[in-house]
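An instance follows:
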Amino acid sequence: MRLVALLLAVLASPAAFARVLEPAGTAASSTEAPDQGVSYDVKNIVDGKAGTVWVEGEEGSGLGSWVRIDLKGQQTVDAIRIWNGNWYTWDFWKRHNRAKEIEVEFSDGSKEHFTLADEFKPEVIKLSKPVKTTFVKLKIKSVYNGTTFNDTCLSEVQVLNSEPDENIPVVRYNASSIYPADNDGTYEPANVADGLLDSMWCENDKDGDGTGEWLEFDFGRPTEVSRLVLRNGNAYSFKMFMKGNRAKAATLTFSDGSTEQVAIKPSMVEQVVSFPPHTTRTVRVTFTEVSRGTEYNDLCISEAYFRK
Protein backbone atom coordinates (compact mmCIF):
# COMPACT_ATOMS: atom_id res chain seq x y z
CA MET A 1 0.00 0.00 0.00
CA ARG A 2 2.82 2.40 0.83
CA LEU A 3 4.41 1.84 -2.60
CA VAL A 4 1.11 2.50 -4.36
CA ALA A 5 0.55 5.69 -2.36
CA LEU A 6 4.10 6.82 -3.10
CA LEU A 7 3.74 6.23 -6.83
CA LEU A 8 0.46 8.12 -6.90
CA ALA A 9 2.06 11.04 -5.07
CA VAL A 10 4.94 11.15 -7.54
CA LEU A 11 2.64 11.00 -10.57
CA ALA A 12 0.50 13.81 -9.14
CA SER A 13 3.44 16.02 -8.27
CA PRO A 14 4.15 19.34 -10.02
CA ALA A 15 7.37 17.84 -11.40
CA ALA A 16 5.24 16.03 -14.01
CA PHE A 17 4.52 19.47 -15.49
CA ALA A 18 7.80 21.03 -14.37
CA ARG A 19 6.67 24.46 -13.17
CA VAL A 20 4.06 25.99 -10.90
CA LEU A 21 3.02 29.40 -12.24
CA GLU A 22 3.17 32.19 -9.69
CA PRO A 23 -0.20 33.92 -9.15
CA ALA A 24 -0.62 37.68 -9.42
CA GLY A 25 -3.93 37.80 -7.56
CA THR A 26 -7.20 36.04 -6.84
CA ALA A 27 -10.94 36.74 -6.97
CA ALA A 28 -14.12 34.86 -6.09
CA SER A 29 -17.86 35.13 -6.69
CA SER A 30 -18.49 35.04 -2.93
CA THR A 31 -16.79 34.15 0.35
CA GLU A 32 -18.06 32.84 3.67
CA ALA A 33 -17.73 35.41 6.45
CA PRO A 34 -14.84 34.95 8.92
CA ASP A 35 -15.68 32.87 11.97
CA GLN A 36 -13.86 33.12 15.31
CA GLY A 37 -10.87 34.75 13.65
CA VAL A 38 -10.64 32.17 10.85
CA SER A 39 -10.66 33.62 7.32
CA TYR A 40 -12.11 31.79 4.32
CA ASP A 41 -10.79 34.31 1.80
CA VAL A 42 -10.04 33.18 -1.77
CA LYS A 43 -6.36 34.09 -1.33
CA ASN A 44 -6.12 30.95 0.81
CA ILE A 45 -6.12 28.81 -2.34
CA VAL A 46 -2.69 30.14 -3.37
CA ASP A 47 -0.98 30.57 0.02
CA GLY A 48 0.96 27.29 -0.13
CA LYS A 49 -1.00 25.74 2.75
CA ALA A 50 -3.61 23.02 2.35
CA GLY A 51 -4.92 23.71 5.86
CA THR A 52 -6.30 27.15 4.91
CA VAL A 53 -9.39 27.15 2.69
CA TRP A 54 -11.75 29.18 0.53
CA VAL A 55 -15.41 28.63 1.36
CA GLU A 56 -18.13 29.98 -0.95
CA GLY A 57 -20.70 32.28 0.64
CA GLU A 58 -23.82 31.43 -1.38
CA GLU A 59 -27.13 30.06 -0.15
CA GLY A 60 -27.29 26.33 -0.77
CA SER A 61 -24.38 24.21 -1.92
CA GLY A 62 -22.56 26.89 -3.92
CA LEU A 63 -23.45 25.79 -7.44
CA GLY A 64 -22.25 28.45 -9.87
CA SER A 65 -19.68 29.83 -7.41
CA TRP A 66 -16.25 30.47 -8.85
CA VAL A 67 -12.66 31.33 -8.03
CA ARG A 68 -10.18 33.02 -10.36
CA ILE A 69 -6.39 32.96 -10.26
CA ASP A 70 -4.78 35.85 -12.13
CA LEU A 71 -1.36 35.18 -13.64
CA LYS A 72 1.61 37.48 -14.19
CA GLY A 73 0.83 38.34 -17.80
CA GLN A 74 -0.06 35.80 -20.46
CA GLN A 75 1.23 32.33 -19.58
CA THR A 76 0.96 28.88 -21.14
CA VAL A 77 -1.12 26.56 -18.94
CA ASP A 78 -0.99 22.76 -19.36
CA ALA A 79 -2.62 21.50 -16.16
CA ILE A 80 -4.14 22.42 -12.82
CA ARG A 81 -3.51 20.76 -9.48
CA ILE A 82 -6.36 20.92 -6.96
CA TRP A 83 -6.69 20.16 -3.26
CA ASN A 84 -10.46 19.74 -3.36
CA GLY A 85 -12.59 20.32 -0.26
CA ASN A 86 -11.57 21.44 3.22
CA TRP A 87 -8.15 19.99 3.98
CA TYR A 88 -7.87 21.39 7.50
CA THR A 89 -8.31 17.81 8.71
CA TRP A 90 -9.68 14.54 7.30
CA ASP A 91 -12.78 15.05 9.47
CA PHE A 92 -13.36 18.56 8.07
CA TRP A 93 -12.90 17.21 4.54
CA LYS A 94 -15.68 14.65 5.04
CA ARG A 95 -18.04 17.12 6.68
CA HIS A 96 -17.86 19.84 3.98
CA ASN A 97 -18.92 19.72 0.33
CA ARG A 98 -16.30 19.06 -2.36
CA ALA A 99 -16.49 20.16 -5.99
CA LYS A 100 -17.53 17.35 -8.35
CA GLU A 101 -17.94 18.90 -11.81
CA ILE A 102 -16.06 22.09 -12.62
CA GLU A 103 -15.87 24.41 -15.60
CA VAL A 104 -12.43 25.89 -16.25
CA GLU A 105 -12.41 29.16 -18.20
CA PHE A 106 -9.47 31.09 -19.70
CA SER A 107 -8.95 34.70 -20.79
CA ASP A 108 -9.46 33.83 -24.48
CA GLY A 109 -13.00 32.71 -23.65
CA SER A 110 -12.31 28.99 -24.07
CA LYS A 111 -13.61 26.52 -21.49
CA GLU A 112 -13.05 22.92 -20.45
CA HIS A 113 -15.15 20.69 -18.19
CA PHE A 114 -13.83 18.13 -15.70
CA THR A 115 -15.22 15.68 -13.17
CA LEU A 116 -13.05 15.54 -10.05
CA ALA A 117 -12.50 12.41 -8.00
CA ASP A 118 -13.97 12.40 -4.49
CA GLU A 119 -10.69 11.50 -2.79
CA PHE A 120 -8.63 13.06 -0.01
CA LYS A 121 -5.55 13.57 -2.18
CA PRO A 122 -4.44 16.27 -4.62
CA GLU A 123 -5.62 15.79 -8.19
CA VAL A 124 -3.97 16.95 -11.40
CA ILE A 125 -6.34 17.72 -14.28
CA LYS A 126 -4.56 17.97 -17.63
CA LEU A 127 -5.98 20.28 -20.30
CA SER A 128 -6.81 18.83 -23.72
CA LYS A 129 -4.20 21.22 -25.14
CA PRO A 130 -1.99 24.01 -23.74
CA VAL A 131 -3.75 27.38 -23.39
CA LYS A 132 -2.22 30.86 -23.38
CA THR A 133 -4.12 32.85 -20.77
CA THR A 134 -3.89 35.63 -18.20
CA PHE A 135 -6.16 33.86 -15.72
CA VAL A 136 -7.68 30.52 -14.77
CA LYS A 137 -11.29 30.54 -13.51
CA LEU A 138 -12.87 27.49 -11.83
CA LYS A 139 -16.68 27.38 -11.60
CA ILE A 140 -18.50 24.76 -9.50
CA LYS A 141 -21.15 22.92 -11.52
CA SER A 142 -21.99 20.08 -9.09
CA VAL A 143 -20.75 18.86 -5.70
CA TYR A 144 -20.09 15.84 -3.53
CA ASN A 145 -22.16 16.42 -0.39
CA GLY A 146 -20.49 16.69 3.00
CA THR A 147 -21.89 14.87 6.02
CA THR A 148 -22.53 18.01 8.07
CA PHE A 149 -22.12 21.34 6.24
CA ASN A 150 -23.66 22.47 2.94
CA ASP A 151 -20.69 24.70 2.04
CA THR A 152 -18.30 23.90 -0.79
CA CYS A 153 -14.57 24.43 -0.24
CA LEU A 154 -11.29 24.51 -2.13
CA SER A 155 -8.05 24.37 -0.17
CA GLU A 156 -5.30 24.94 -2.73
CA VAL A 157 -4.99 25.36 -6.51
CA GLN A 158 -1.75 25.32 -8.50
CA VAL A 159 -1.59 26.35 -12.16
CA LEU A 160 1.03 24.28 -14.00
CA ASN A 161 2.91 24.33 -17.27
CA SER A 162 5.52 22.12 -18.93
CA GLU A 163 8.35 24.62 -19.25
CA PRO A 164 11.66 23.67 -17.61
CA ASP A 165 12.14 24.57 -13.97
CA GLU A 166 15.26 25.01 -11.85
CA ASN A 167 14.28 22.07 -9.66
CA ILE A 168 15.48 18.72 -10.98
CA PRO A 169 12.57 16.30 -11.53
CA VAL A 170 12.54 13.29 -9.22
CA VAL A 171 11.07 9.99 -10.41
CA ARG A 172 11.09 8.26 -7.02
CA TYR A 173 11.42 9.17 -3.35
CA ASN A 174 12.53 6.81 -0.59
CA ALA A 175 12.92 7.29 3.15
CA SER A 176 14.35 5.40 6.10
CA SER A 177 10.95 5.56 7.83
CA ILE A 178 7.63 7.34 7.45
CA TYR A 179 5.35 8.65 10.18
CA PRO A 180 1.90 6.98 9.93
CA ALA A 181 -0.94 8.92 8.30
CA ASP A 182 -3.30 10.60 10.75
CA ASN A 183 -6.23 13.03 10.76
CA ASP A 184 -3.96 15.73 9.26
CA GLY A 185 -2.90 13.64 6.26
CA THR A 186 0.14 11.64 5.17
CA TYR A 187 3.87 12.12 5.80
CA GLU A 188 5.20 10.40 2.66
CA PRO A 189 8.61 11.54 1.30
CA ALA A 190 7.02 12.81 -1.95
CA ASN A 191 5.35 15.53 0.14
CA VAL A 192 8.64 17.46 0.06
CA ALA A 193 7.94 18.32 -3.60
CA ASP A 194 4.27 19.35 -3.48
CA GLY A 195 4.83 23.09 -2.98
CA LEU A 196 2.95 23.15 0.34
CA LEU A 197 4.38 24.34 3.64
CA ASP A 198 1.98 22.30 5.79
CA SER A 199 2.56 19.01 3.94
CA MET A 200 5.81 17.29 4.83
CA TRP A 201 7.86 14.15 5.29
CA CYS A 202 8.30 13.08 8.91
CA GLU A 203 10.38 10.16 10.14
CA ASN A 204 9.03 7.44 12.42
CA ASP A 205 11.87 6.50 14.76
CA LYS A 206 9.90 6.09 17.98
CA ASP A 207 12.99 6.16 20.20
CA GLY A 208 15.19 8.75 18.47
CA ASP A 209 15.04 12.38 17.42
CA GLY A 210 15.60 11.71 13.71
CA THR A 211 19.40 11.58 13.79
CA GLY A 212 20.47 8.96 11.24
CA GLU A 213 17.17 9.06 9.35
CA TRP A 214 17.34 9.74 5.62
CA LEU A 215 15.53 10.91 2.49
CA GLU A 216 16.60 9.65 -0.92
CA PHE A 217 15.98 11.36 -4.28
CA ASP A 218 16.13 9.29 -7.49
CA PHE A 219 16.38 11.39 -10.67
CA GLY A 220 16.09 8.39 -12.99
CA ARG A 221 19.29 9.24 -14.87
CA PRO A 222 22.74 10.76 -14.19
CA THR A 223 22.23 14.42 -13.36
CA GLU A 224 24.53 17.18 -12.16
CA VAL A 225 23.60 18.61 -8.76
CA SER A 226 25.24 21.31 -6.65
CA ARG A 227 22.45 22.85 -4.57
CA LEU A 228 19.86 21.58 -2.11
CA VAL A 229 16.87 23.86 -1.52
CA LEU A 230 15.14 23.24 1.82
CA ARG A 231 12.20 24.28 3.96
CA ASN A 232 13.28 22.79 7.27
CA GLY A 233 10.92 21.36 9.89
CA ASN A 234 7.17 22.00 9.92
CA ALA A 235 7.00 25.28 8.00
CA TYR A 236 3.26 25.83 8.42
CA SER A 237 3.86 28.47 11.08
CA PHE A 238 6.58 29.57 13.49
CA LYS A 239 4.62 28.03 16.36
CA MET A 240 4.46 24.62 14.68
CA PHE A 241 8.07 24.93 13.54
CA MET A 242 9.25 25.37 17.13
CA LYS A 243 7.21 22.39 18.35
CA GLY A 244 8.91 19.83 16.08
CA ASN A 245 12.46 18.71 15.38
CA ARG A 246 14.58 20.41 12.70
CA ALA A 247 17.74 19.34 10.89
CA LYS A 248 21.09 21.02 11.63
CA ALA A 249 23.50 18.94 9.53
CA ALA A 250 23.44 16.17 6.94
CA THR A 251 25.60 13.85 4.84
CA LEU A 252 24.83 13.76 1.12
CA THR A 253 25.64 10.36 -0.41
CA PHE A 254 25.79 10.10 -4.21
CA SER A 255 25.28 7.03 -6.39
CA ASP A 256 29.06 6.52 -6.85
CA GLY A 257 29.52 6.31 -3.06
CA SER A 258 31.09 9.78 -2.64
CA THR A 259 29.78 12.07 0.10
CA GLU A 260 29.54 15.70 1.16
CA GLN A 261 28.93 17.06 4.66
CA VAL A 262 26.59 20.05 4.78
CA ALA A 263 25.29 22.38 7.48
CA ILE A 264 21.57 23.18 7.57
CA LYS A 265 20.12 26.27 9.22
CA PRO A 266 17.44 25.41 11.81
CA SER A 267 15.12 27.93 10.16
CA MET A 268 11.68 27.62 8.49
CA VAL A 269 12.69 30.12 5.79
CA GLU A 270 13.71 28.65 2.42
CA GLN A 271 17.47 28.07 2.33
CA VAL A 272 19.90 27.00 -0.37
CA VAL A 273 22.66 24.59 0.67
CA SER A 274 25.52 24.61 -1.85
CA PHE A 275 28.15 21.88 -2.30
CA PRO A 276 30.71 20.86 -4.98
CA PRO A 277 29.01 19.60 -8.17
CA HIS A 278 28.37 15.87 -8.49
CA THR A 279 26.90 13.90 -11.38
CA THR A 280 24.64 11.27 -9.88
CA ARG A 281 21.42 9.35 -10.33
CA THR A 282 20.51 9.45 -6.65
CA VAL A 283 21.23 11.54 -3.58
CA ARG A 284 20.61 10.21 -0.08
CA VAL A 285 20.33 12.94 2.56
CA THR A 286 21.17 11.45 5.96
CA PHE A 287 20.48 13.83 8.83
CA THR A 288 23.42 13.74 11.22
CA GLU A 289 22.46 16.48 13.66
CA VAL A 290 18.99 17.53 14.82
CA SER A 291 17.61 20.43 16.86
CA ARG A 292 14.90 19.29 19.29
CA GLY A 293 11.42 20.79 19.30
CA THR A 294 9.48 21.87 22.36
CA GLU A 295 6.72 19.26 22.02
CA TYR A 296 7.22 16.62 19.30
CA ASN A 297 10.31 14.41 18.99
CA ASP A 298 9.96 13.79 15.24
CA LEU A 299 12.14 15.25 12.48
CA CYS A 300 10.20 16.76 9.58
CA ILE A 301 11.17 18.38 6.27
CA SER A 302 8.51 20.48 4.54
CA GLU A 303 10.12 21.02 1.11
CA ALA A 304 13.32 19.76 -0.54
CA TYR A 305 14.61 20.12 -4.12
CA PHE A 306 17.92 19.65 -5.87
CA ARG A 307 19.26 22.04 -8.52
CA LYS A 308 22.32 22.18 -10.75
About this structure: The chain has a mean pLDDT of 92.
